[in-house]
Amino acid sequence: MTKKLAFGWVLHQHQPVGNFPWVFAQVYEVCYAPLIDALEHHPGVRVSLHYSGPLLDWLLAEHPEYVAQIRRLVARGQVEMLTSGYYEPILPILPEFDQHGQIAKMNGAIREHFGYQPTGLWLTERVWEPALPAPLARAGVRYTILDDTHFIMAGLGSQDLYGYYVTEDQGHALRIFPNPKVIREAIPWKPVPRIEETFRGLYDAAHGNPRLVVLADDGEKFGSWPDTYDRMWRRGYMEQLFTMLEANSEWLETVHLSEYMAREEPLGRVYIPTASYAEMMEWALPAERSALFSRIHHDLKRTDQLDLAGFMHGGTWRNFAAKYPEANNFHKKMLRVHSKIRDAAAALGPAKTQSALDQLWMGQCNCGYWHGLFGGLYLADIRSAIYQHLIHAEAITDGALAGNTPTVTLTDFDCDGRDEVLIESPTMDVYLAPHDGGAIFEWDYKPQPFNVVDTLARRPEAYHDKLLTGKVKIVTPSDPMAMPAHPVDLDAEEVEHEGEAASIHDLVQAKEGGLEKLLHYDPQRRAVLRERFFAATTTLDDLVDMRYEELGDFVGERYDYRVEGTGADALVVDLWRDGTVRDGKGALPLRLRKSVAFDTHAATLAVTYTLHNAGTRRLRTQFAAESNWGMLGGGHNPMAWYLIDGERPAETPALDMADTATGVREVALVNAGAGVRVTLTPGTPAHLWRFPIWSVSNSEAGFERSYQCSSVVLRWPLDLAPGDRWSVTLRLAVGPAE
C-alpha cells in the first residue's frame, strides 16, 4: 500500500523573561493570534505547538480566550502540545534537579490549561549534548527534534533525514526527529507553488514507502520577523499554504510526531555529538574565527561544494561562557544560588523552597546567556531581569543559611583557575577579582533586588565587518502591521530570487547611520574600582574611544590582598600592587593600595586609596578611579538620571549622556523605576567625566546601538615627590531611589 508523505509541523513560540509587555502584545497581534485563527479555519492542518512559560504566563493573564481556543484545537485532535523547561533554559547547563523541575512545571501547566499530557520536548535552541537522553527519559520525555546539522555531524547524509531515530545514554532511550533544511528554508520564504513542488518531489522519491518531513521552527517567523506580517496575513501567504496542504490530502498528510512515532518504526540508532543549529555554532566562535568560518562556508556554497560544508562545524554553545565573561557570570551565579536553595530547603520548608526555585528557574531563561542574531546578552533589560530573579531567589535563602552575619568566601567563582573574594550578606553581595585589578564585577542590592554592576564590555563581533564595508541599508523601524511602501504580488520578484522573500539571516541593514564610529573595544570587563593613569592632555573623547595611552600597569593586573575582620561593619579587603607609572623619562615605581571597608548593613563601602611614589624622581600624572554602573539608562530613560552635587544637570541629565564637571563632591545615578540609587562621594573634590557605553549589535531588524552601562570617572592631578604619599577616600553606597 502506497503511503502518504507525512508532514510534521512544529511551531515554537517564546518571549524571554524580562521582555517589555508591549513586545508581547505586539507579537500577539501580528503573529500568535492570526496563526491560531487560521488553524481553527483549516481543521485539516494538524500541528504541534510549544509555548514557553514566560509567554504562557502572559497569555493566561492577558488573553485567556486564546488559551481556551488552543485547548479546543487540542480537544479535536488538531494540535498536540510539546513540553520543555518552563522558562526556556538551555537544559544541558542545568543541574538535573532543575531540568526535571522545569519540565515537570511545564507538564503540569499543559495538563491544566490544555488538557494534554505531552511526550515530546522542544529543546531550547536545539542545544544538544550526548548525555541528555538519560535525564530527559527520566523526566518522561519520549522524543525531541534536532536540526539536520546534528545528524550530518553524526555522519548521516541529507537523504537520511526523513523519519526518526533512536539514541540513548546509559540505556535510557530517546527518539529524535531530524529537521531538514529543505522545508525549513522554504517555508515561509518561497512561494506556495514552489513548496508544493518540493513536497511532491519528496513524495515521489519515497516510492510509496513511509517518509516523514519535519518543519520545526519559530512561530514568530510567521508575522513578527521583519517584513513578514504583510506577506503572511494581508497578502494571504498562510491562507494559500494551509489551503495547499488540505488540497493535497490524497498524497500529503499533516501529522503529530507522537502519532508518527506510534505507527512507524525508527530508521535506526544514532549518537549525536555536541551541537546546536549551524548559525549558533558559528556565533559561539570567537569573532575572528567566526568571520573566517562564515567566509569559508560562503565560498563552499558559491562553488557548489555544500557537501563539504557538512564536515564543518563551529563552536559549542558552552563557548559563549568563554567568549563573554558576563554570560559566564550568569551561569556561575545561577549554580551558586541553586546550591544555596538545596542547602536551605529543610529550613525553608516546601512553600518557601518552591518560591525560591521559581525565581531561580526564571533566572535560567536562556536569552541573556548568549548572543547571535537574537541573543539577548546585549539587551540590558534582559540581563537585568535574570539578575533580579537570581538575587531574589538567593535572598529567600539568606536567613536560613547565615542569619544576619556576612560571609566571606574565597573561591574560584567563575572557574578560571583563580580565586575571587565573595562578600555576601542579607543586604548585599559584592564580588571582587584580585587578579583583575581588584575590581568589583558584581554588586547585588538585595532589598530591590538589583545588580548595579550589570554591565557589558564592548567587544569585536564577526558581523562588525559588514558595517565597515559601507554596504549597509539604513532602515527606520516601523509598525510591523503597516503596509509596505511598495507592495508586490506573492509570486512577483521580491529580492534577487524569483518569488522569494529575504530570510532574516540574509538582511544587512542598520537602524541608523554612522554606527561604525561606535566600534570601540574594551580590553577588560566594565567593572567598579578600575584605577587608571593618563596624561594631562587626555580628553574625555580619548577615554570614550579607548584611544588614550594608559600610563600605569594596574588596570586588569593582579593585586595582592588580605581580608580583615568578620563583623557586618568591620569587614575590610585590603588590596595592593607594586607597579609602575610612565612619564616622559621612563617608568616610575608606584605602590597603589586600596583598602575596601564594608558596611553590609547599609550596603556601603569606603575605598581608601594610598599612592606611594617609590621612585627617585617626581611623579606628575592624572590618577582616576573608574566605575561602571548598569542602571538601565538607555533611550534617555526618563526614570533614570544623574545628580551632581545634589542637582540634576539641566542639559545632560540622562544616564546615556556624556558630560564633564570640576570640583565634584558627590555623584549619584538614580533609577526611579528600578527603585535603586548609587552614590559616589569622594573625600577630596574631583574632576568628573561621565559617559555611556554603547555597543553595536545585530538584531532581527538590523544593526543598532545598545546602551550597556554608564561610566563614571573621578580623577585627580598628582604631583608626588620621591617617597611622598597621597590618599583619598571614595565612599560608594547603594540604596533606594528616594
List keywords for this structure.
738 residues, alpha+beta, 7-stranded beta/alpha barrel, Beta-galactosidase, Chain A, domain 5, eight-stranded antiparallel β-sheet, five-stranded parallel β-sheet, 27% strand
Task: Produce the secondary structure layout.
Elements: E1 5-13, H1 21-41, E2 47-51, H2 53-62, H3 64-75, E3 79-81, H4 96-114, E4 120-121, H5 133-138, E5 143-147, H6 148-153, E6 165-169, E7 172-179, H7 181-184, H8 192-206, E8 211-218, H9 229-234, H10 237-247, E9 252-254, H11 257-263, H12 278-283, H13 287-302, H14 306-309, H15 320-323, H16 325-362, H17 380-401, E10 407-411, E11 420-424, E12 428-433, E13 439-445, E14 450-451, H18 464-468, E15 473-474, E16 509-510, E17 528-534, H19 540-544, E18 560-564, E19 571-583, E20 586-599, E21 604-613, E22 619-629, E23 640-644, E24 659-664, E25 667-671, E26 676-682, E27 686-697, E28 704-720, E29 725-736
Parallel strand pairs: 1-2, 1-8, 1-9, 2-3, 4-5, 5-7, 15-16
Antiparallel strand pairs: 6-7, 10-11, 11-12, 12-13, 13-14, 17-22, 18-19, 19-20, 20-21, 21-29, 22-28, 23-25, 24-27, 25-26, 26-29, 27-28
Helix pairs in contact: 1-3, 2-3, 16-17
Structure description:
It is a single chain. Among the domains are: 5-276, 7-stranded beta/alpha barrel, CATH 3.20.110; 517-736, Beta-galactosidase, Chain A, domain 5 (Distorted Sandwich), CATH 2.70.98. The strands form 6 sheets. An 8-stranded antiparallel beta sheet has the order 18-19-20-21-29-26-25-23, with no helix packed on it. Strands 1, 2, 3, 8 and 9 form a 5-stranded parallel beta sheet that branches. The chain is of the alpha+beta class and 738 residues long. Mean pLDDT is 93; it is low at 482-499. It is built from 19 helices and 29 strands.
